[in-house]
Known about the structure:
The chain has a three-stranded antiparallel sheet. By secondary structure, it is of the alpha+beta class. The mean pLDDT is 94. It contains two helices and three strands; from the N terminus they run βββαα. It has one domain (3-88).
Amino acid sequence: xxxxxxxxxxxxxxxxxxxxxxxxxxxxxxxxxxxxxxxxxxxxxxxxxxxxxxxxxxxxxxxxxxxxxxxxxxxxxxxxxxxxxxxxxxxxxxxxxxxxxxxxxxxxxxxxx
Length: 113
């Protein structure tokens, strides 16, 4: 089974915004996939950034020092929507499957011994 893991690589912040400090407005993310099969480990990855809304009527402001990665990943995935998150995960899985069973291979020239 392919293991997919989301990470936050960087947060961009406004130093001051609406009375708050270090207000996150964008997150750079990386998605990594890994599969070990028959003693060989295959990897895939995707990366990008997502603009975030620093204020939401559904949740209170969280100070920068109190943020945890899982919370920011949730914000990123929520801002993307389920379809885009699924497409990113599927793309990483396709990279790994492409390594296991490549669609194109380069073979040695038949006349070279």
